[in-house]
Amino acid sequence: MKVFLCLVALLCAPSIFASDDFDLEAHMKNMGLAYKHTVEATQLPEFNTAIDEFITLLKRSKSATFHKEAEQSLQGLDKVIIKAELAKRLANEQGLDAAKEPLKAIDGLRKQYHKLHEPPGFWELLFGK
């Protein structure tokens, strides 16, 4: 009986230790909040704090495990990072109004790349793509 319990413990141990503690869904919500703070910022220091947090969260997201379309998801994150860094540079050089265009592009990229991870619809489940 002791041997059996030891075997069960050893078989379960790798799954316990290998569990991914990175909660991508919660992380994405934090990114959305940081993005919202960035867009709503009215002062440059407030904007810089929010955009820095957003960029940090984006870079951290690249370490997540994407189960579908991983390569495209990583490319999307890279594109968003580039746009966020451009928005920061423009805001610091020309003012907050100059950052609006790259921030709008980020929202477009978000919509585009979120489609990769949407669950299949009813008809898609029945008949496939």
UniProtKB/TrEMBL annotation:
InterPro entries: Cyt_b562, Cyt_c/b562. Belongs to the cytochrome b562 family. GO terms for biological process: electron transport chain. GO terms for molecular function: electron transfer activity; heme binding; iron ion binding. Residues 1-18 form the signal peptide. This is Soluble cytochrome b562. Pfam families: Cytochrom_B562 (PF07361). It comes from the Bacteria. Keywords: Signal. The lineage of its organism: Bacteria, Pseudomonadati, Pseudomonadota, Gammaproteobacteria, Alteromonadales. GO terms for cellular component: periplasmic space.
